[in-house]
Amino acid sequence: MRSTTPPKRKWTTNLVTRRGFLGGGAAAAASGVIGVTGGAYAAGAVGAQNLETFAAKRELSFRGNHQMGIEADLQAVTNFIAFDIKPTTDKAAMLRFMSLITDDIDRLSRGEPVLADPSPELAIGAARFSAYVGFGPALFEKLGLQAQMPTGFGRLPTFKVDQLQDQHSSGDVLIHIAADDPVVLAHGTRGIVRDAMPFASVRWVQSGFAHTPGMVPPGITHRNLMGQVDGTANPTLGTEDFNQVVWIEDGPAWIQGGTLLAYRRIAMQLDTWDQLGTPSKEEVIGRKLSNGAPLTGDKESDIPDLAARHPNGLSVIPEFAHIRRAAPASPGERIFRRPFSYEAGISTAGSVDVGLLWTAYQRNMDNQFIPIQSRLDELDLLNKWTAPIGSAEFAIAGGVLDGEVIAEALFS
Amino acid sequence: MRKFALILSSLLVLAGCSTQVEVQATDLWVKSSEMSTAGGMTAVYGTLTNNSGDEIVLSGGQTTLAGLVEVHEMAMINGEMKMQETEAGLTIPAGQSIELEPGGNHLMFMQLTRDLLAGDKISVTFSFTGADDLVVDGIIAKPAEGGDEEYHSSETEVDN
Question: Which domain range does residue A345 map to?
Fold first, then answer.
């Protein structure tokens, strides 16, 4: 029992200073100014004394027009958690569920424990904690809310490449949590899942990772476990282009400022992939492994020249190459990808169970993800070494301002 | 923006306060459990800070949720730490805070007038000796266990 404690907010106030100090780095990252951002990582800018808490004190903003953790550089570790609601959970219960989760995310994003946290000592820093909430097609059906379904949202069609497993697929509610520290992630996950239990049961959890802070400058595309630079040609964070691709502007009030997520668990067959030489691997994708540049260019940002041919007449970027097949057929046919890697085990024969927790964020799945995936389904040599083994769709509610609850307009 | 968020986090408290903020309540929550049903009981937890220059005492409270509200403290009873009502209330020294927490001091609600469900939000009036009443709205019901709670209350035993 503590009879007296120092004012709790004092420590938080301290964060204000730290955050303001690092704010320049975050702003630079959002605008894609990589060179400037890199400077924020230098010991001179942060101070040697603070380096050990550098990751802990970085915060992402929870309140705003959009939910957090989408228009943001990848964090180090993540949990995608899908829930199925209980038969007794109605609209009113969903609103109470969201009230609890909203408060939890608000606190965790500041590095604070949730209310009633049995282990508040684990709240050691924000570490760019983020969480957002989305809803699957089944939820709308269960609650009779079909009229609130966003345009261009529904169950994905079956693709030929699909090898979907129920244990990795579907779900009524998604809570996607991420942070730059595994302990922060685990602690935040516990708090959020605990508060979900009166309303829902866990359907699946998919855990993944990207680079830890400091491994690559913000804004730099991460590498997947096949070695490829993965996420090139994404719209740049903080731009109007990003808004156009990702954030929904019309439709039911609750989805305005939100987005649609096509989620795919994509397994990689590294045993056979590793048998290929570098030139073969590069032709499968159409990009160089060294820096992600298209085979017709020198750097990652170069626009692929799909018409370029070798002297022998063959296309430099082959007809079967992933980037040729994924290239938009119309200007609006684009998605924002934010893929984490997963590693789920190693067989006795030494085969690694790895792949991507692949995400496509967009305004309209009918116009964006589905046409792209349909082309890849017809022809993409990469399909030989990758297979979707899980799939789900979630409509991500818009952001919350002060005093608001996530998806309040949907469940009120 | 940061400061803005901090101010708003205390808004619930300020909204229900008289002009002078003598007592500040932060991180308040109420427990929802299998016991927090109509006729049952629950408790409120959080931090109360005395911003005045004089000692004040949490003497009780009111809420439409409960027919009976008591201030409970931890006490050694027959060699065991148990919770019981304190007639004298809980003293908050000048400029200091007290924690209301599971397994510790708390504001006990008995004879609940309705079921308290996870995620419900309630309003509570805290009463003090030496300070004005403090009305706090929007206190959220958290599904919570823990704190090794064992109650020792004559009222509770009679009513349950």
Answer: 270-392
Min Cα–Cα distance to chain B from A337, Å: 29
Query: In sequence order, what are the residues at sequence separation of 6 or more whose Cβ sits closer than 8 angstroms to the Cβ of residue A141?
Result: none
Q: Please provide residue A17's backbone torsions phi and psi, each rounded to the nearest 5 degrees.
A: -65, -45
Phi-psi bin for A97: left (phi > 0), alpha (psi -120 to 50), beta?
alpha
ipTM value of the model?
0.81
Q: Which of A115, A194, A199 lies at the smallest CB-CB distance from B140?
A: A115
**B103: which chain A residues are within 8 Å (Cβ-Cβ)?**
1
Q: How would CATH label the architecture of B2-159?
A: Sandwich (2.60)
A46 within some domain: yes
Could you say which DSSP state residue A47 is in? Answer: -
Per-residue pLDDT of chain B (160 residues; tens, 9 = 90+): 333 333 334 444 444 444 457 899 999 999 999 999 999 999 999 999 999 999 999 999 999 999 999 999 988 888 888 888 998 999 999 999 999 998 899 999 999 999 999 999 999 999 999 999 999 999 999 998 755 555 544 444 433 3
- Based on the fold, state whether residues A187 and A287 are members of the same structural domain: no
Q: Are residues A407 and A347 in the same domain?
A: no
Q: What angle do CA A412, B3, B6 make, to 5 degrees?
A: 50
CA–CA separation, A149 and A247 (whole Å)? 15
In a domain, A252, yes or no: no
d(CA A316, CA A324): 11
A15 touches chain B (CB under 8 A): yes
- Crossing angle of the two packed helices A91-108 and A182-196, in degrees rounded to 10: 160
Tell me the nearest-neighbour CA distance from A296 into chain B, angstroms.
45
Q: Where are the domains of chain B?
A: 2-159
The stretches of A78-159 forming alpha helices (DSSP H) are 91-108, 137-142
Q: How many domains does chain A have?
A: 2
Report yes or no: A88 at the B interface, CB cutoff 8 Å: no
Contact B6 A19 (CB under 8 A): no
Closest Cβ opposite residue A2 in set B49, B99, B144 = B99
Q: What is the pTM of this model?
A: 0.85
Closest Cβ opposite residue A8 in set B1, B4, B27: B27
Written as one letter, the residue type at A41 is: Y
Residue A316 lies in a domain: yes
